[in-house]
Write a structure and sequence with these properties.
The protein has about 190 residues and is an all-alpha fold. Helices cover about 70% and strands about 0% of the residues. It contains six helices and no strands. Helix 1 packs parallel to helix 3 and helix 1 runs antiparallel to helix 6. The longest helix has about 30 residues. The mean pLDDT is about 95.
């Protein structure tokens, strides 16, 4: 007797996408850094993606396991980078300077660039998510090295919003296409 498992990827894509859009709305200057962004980073961007990574493991999907779990932990680490300097729980913790944040974004960009190659035989929509995410991490690194100029942060935020919405699109496409047993939103599979 076999049990059909649901596809957890749309949950992970939506968790990543919505959180990315909201953070980059802040980067673009629409509003300040606030508890809404941090809460999304901990819950939907972080915890939801980690759970999806475990579910992808159960399905035997190594790419999904590594991607969703890693980016879920990215959100947790980003929230920790923001919050740790304001706490005394771990003693006095210095805030990360621009060089440290540039190194952080460089490593995540390198990881994303390597993961992009795992999308080459899937579909164009997933390639767009990882391609724009690689560009976003490169721009975040550059922003830190430039000293966070407002004009570059705005451009970076706009690119991040595009990246986030590409993940939201793919998440909804997977849900709607499966629910309707036909293509409602195309994902442009590789033939």
């Amino acid at each position: 007797m076999s049990t059909k498992l649901a596809n957890p990827a749309p949950l992970g894509l939506l968790g990543f996408g919505l959180t990315t859009v909201l953070l980059n709305m802040h980067n673009a200057g629409f509003f300040g850094l606030n508890s809404m962004i941090l809460a999304m980073g901990l819950a939907y961007g972080g915890l939801a993606q980690i759970i999806v990574g475990v579910m992808e493991f159960k399905k035997g999907n190594t790419f999904g396991t590594v991607a969703f779990t890693s980016y879920g932990l990215f959100w947790w680490s980003l929230v920790a980078l923001i919050l740790l300097p304001g706490t005394s729980f771990f003693g006095f913790v210095l805030s990360s300077d621009n060089n440290a944040m540039a190194a952080y974004f460089f490593m995540w960009g390198l990881f994303t660039f390597a993961m992009f190659f795992g999308t080459l035989k899937t579909n164009r929509s997933l390639q767009l998510v990882f391609g724009t995410l690689f560009i976003l991490f490169f721009m975040l690194m550059t922003r830190e090295l430039l000293g966070n100029p407002v004009w570059f942060n705005t451009i970076t935020g706009i690119e991040g919003i595009i990246c986030g919405f590409s993940a939201v699109y793919l998440g909804f496409a997977e849900i709607l296409n499966e629910a309707n047993q036909k293509t409602i939103l195309p994902i442009f599979p590789i033939k």
